[in-house]
Each structure stands twice: as structure tokens, then as C-alpha cells.
Amino acid sequence: MKSSQHHHLAAKAAEIPTRTGAPELSAVLVRSMPYSGPPGEFMLKVPPVQEAERATGEMCPPAGHAGPCFNRPRIALLSNPKSTGNIAQLPVIREYCDSHPDVFHYEVEEARQIGDAMRIIARVRPKVLVINGGDGTVQAALTELYNGGHFEGDPPPVAVLPSGKTNLIALDLGARGDAIETLERLIELARADELSRYIVPRELIALRRPGAEDRPVIGMFLGGAGLAETMLYCRHKIYPLGLPNSVSHGLTFLAYVARLVLKLKAGFLPPAATITDLVMPMRDRISGRFALLAVTTLNKMLLSGTLGGEGHGPLKVVAIEERTGTVLRALAAGLTGGYKGKKMRGIHFEEVDEVTIEGDRSHLILDGETFCADRGNPIHLMPAQPLSFVKLAA
What we know:
CATH superfamily of the largest domain: Probable inorganic polyphosphate/atp-NAD kinase, domain 1
CATH architecture of the largest domain: 3-Layer(aba) Sandwich
Structural class: alpha+beta
Distance between the termini: 37 Å
Shape: globular
Order of helices and strands: HEEHEHEHEHEHHEEEHHEEEHEEEEE
Largest sheet: 11 strands, antiparallel
Strand content: 15-25%
Number of domains: 2
Mean pLDDT: 76
Low-confidence stretches: 1-70, 302-308
């Protein structure tokens, strides 16, 4: 994305009227380069002021048919061209958006651009916001939705197209299959005003750090301790090999098993977990070296069918001590239907309203973004206000 292109088009989009009583917007395409060109080029649909101020009653063509449309774009699509899946599929998505004025498409290549994207998207008042990227892109967008205050009233429901290295949020929402088919389905539901049948609320995690408490980072899944170290190992040592995701994850798992079970130590293996402390209200402090530390609001996670534990809070906390026998018992429990209601030595399972994490430079990853919990600089997790998501699959 050329910076001059980005700022020129963003300035054009800023002309869209923001008053709530504005008439329907007409969609026109503004672009300075071929839309079907290589990733990195920028596309944005922006109605000029004179068109935005002209009310019309003409309806959009049926889904799958190109043609003029003088109604406000019903779907906003936020894409990250650098997400793994988008390297191959983004040109096709661009071509589709080019011929479907129902879709307002905005591309960002850096997290810092998402604030401008949300400000512009809010002005076209979409019925649904579709995020085309991995967990990191979704997390950055959710953080801006939560903190930015760009939308009048509640923000639109969020749908996710999985296209990153990790897509836990998309999987939790049942997002599978072809991206174009998903967009077609969303357009169809938006036109028929039937999106409400597929909207589900999702609890969110608000992560706060010392010095930045007023702007929490928002996500759904946090991995820490040995899990985070292994994820970082995969990111920095395995992904650069350019292997398919499934192969990369398989190699990472074998490397972890070699270190844990065979007690091997080498620079090409994942590092061992450091000491991590968990502090939760009305609970004893939990301290140790954990093979897996996870805090989530997702309904499903890793090998477990459903999550559950002591308490009734929205945050589900799992901590598995780094011992071979304990890890094997946890894997077996996960494969046979989850941990709910089971008490096993070395496996800590809680449902709480908040948790504070401290450690000896213990790494934490919230939906792709890495943090570090130190002594005296803890990470504090609390539930955030739920947002609405679109779940197309049963």
C-alpha cells in the first residue's frame, strides 16, 4: 500500500456525511491502480458528497450479479493483505468487491491503520463488519471497536473470514469454507434483513498493563507459559521455513514432545517455561512452571470439548503443570471429552471474574500479540463488554 494512495483515499472517504439522518449512500469505486493487481495495492469504495446527499430508491442487483447500486453499502470488509491466506485469495476477493457495490472494502497492512479504517467504516454505517485476517487482525480490530468510539450506539456485528496462521476465533464462530461464498451469504442475509437470526454475543477479555490501564487490549484467547514459548518458537523458527501450516504445527509439536518427554535440551528446541504466578479473587495463589496456561472466553479450546471449572466467572483459566505425566493425563482427558467436572493432580481449572499474572519474564500471547509478565509489572485480565458476532455455521 503506497502511503500517498492511502492518505488520498482516506481523505476522500472522510467527506462522507456523519449525520444520522443522512440519506442512503451510493457506492462508487475510487482507485488509482488496477483493483486485481498484486497484494499491497489499495482499494476503497467511497461515495462522493453529492451522491451521498442524493436519496434514491433503486435496489441492488441480486447476489452474484454485477451492476449499479445506489443504496448504502451493507457490508464493510476489512482485509489484511499480509495474512497468510490472503496472499492467494485476496485478488479474487478484490475482483468480487469490484463488481458488488454492497461491499465496502478497506485494506490495512499495519495495526496502526485500523483506527483510520474504523473511523471511515463507521461513516458508511454497515449492517455487518467482516474481518478478513487471522487472530491478530481480529484482535486489533476488536480493540479499536472497544476503545475507539467510532460508531454511534452499538457497533455492527462482526463476522470473520479465516485467513491467518492462527484462526481460533474464526473456528469458534464456525467460519469455514470459501471466502466468496461467505460474503455472498452475508450479502443475502443483509438484503433480506435476516442477520439477527445468526447474531450471537461473545464475551471478551480486556488485558491491562501498568501504564496503559485506560486502553485495554481486547481478545478472546490468551496463551502463556510453555504454550506461549512454543507458539513463539513456531513463529520464529518454524514458520520462516515456508512449510504448510499443518506441517509447521506438526514439527512444533514433535519438538515440544522431544523437550518434555525425552528431556532433550538444544537451541533448536522450544525453551522451557519460567515460573508463573496466577492470582484470582477468592482463590489460593497458583505458582509453578506450566506446560500450558490459557485464559479464554471461547466455547471450545484446544483438545477440550467444553470448558468448565471451579466457579462461574466468564474467564476460563487452565494451567497444566510441566510434568510429563500431568501433560499426558491432560491430553487424554481432552481427547475423551474435556476437563469439566474432573479433578486431576497438576491440572488447575477455574472460571473467574478476573486474574492477575506475574512471572519471571513469562510470555503471554493474546490472539497473536505478545506481552511479558514480570515481577512488579503484572498483566491483569478482566471480562470486557460483550460484542455481537455473526455465526453462520450451526
